[in-house]
Amino acid sequence: MIQDNNPSTATQREYDGWNIISRLSHTFRTPLNHVLGFAEILASGSFGPLNEKQTKYVARIQAAGRRQLRLLDQLVDVARVNTRELVGEATPYDVQSMIENVVRQHKSIAKGTGVEIAVRFCDAIQINGDFNSTYQVIDNLIEFAVKRSTSGSTIRVTAILLDDPTTGSQSLGITIVHDGPALSKIEQDLLEHGAPAVGTDQLQDVEGLGLLHASTMARHLGGELSLGTGSGGLELTFTVPTSHNVRLSHALD
After folding, report:
1. How many angstroms separate the CA atoms of 190 and 175, rounded?
2. What are the two backbone dihedrals, phi and then psi, of residue 28, each rounded to the nearest 5 degrees?
3. What percent of the chain has pLDDT above 90?
4. By the 8 A CB rule, do 207 and 140 touch?
5. Separation of alpha carbons 70 and 36, rounded Å
6. Phi and psi, residue 85, nearest 5°
């Protein structure tokens, strides 16, 4: 077996691999959309009413299909970042509204497992940046925390502005604290570096892909993810630079 250790060749192979994933996304998406479309028709009762068991099965098909679409979107995002094809659009947005919207998406699932989500804003922050990519990072991290938290616990989400005295610049810092178990070495690599120290077969679980997606999108934004521990448990922190037109409106109680 001949092994090519040329860095430029290896980089090109990696680029080509991600490019194939990005180009083939429609091949996987089309049949999945057909499945979801037929499931929606069945759920609507267009072919007659469904009994209780049939309704439950159709709901499961829809939930599984939407989940697979989301995973496909995440994989394509990672591929597009690695092939330099993902270009974000900077728009002004309110950080508090964005985080509250993300939390709202996860509250019902969290409540069903006995987990609460509490949000605290030290500042009211409006920034001009890539809303969609930032939203996806926070969405992945909160979803991960919900899966890992124990029943009866509370996930705490905090957003603050961080000042860099050496450069005079500011960053947005979002910390998610939960009481789940410590991350494995593979999960730490995914979170902090965007790649595992072992083969990609370790990415077969959903959580692994979610962490890879979060890390990739954070780096795409020029930010980073970090891991720590505190009195409240495991701390996942997302730090991303803010543009020069950050506006701090007023402090919240």
Report:
1. 17
2. -80, -35
3. 23
4. no
5. 13
6. -100, -15
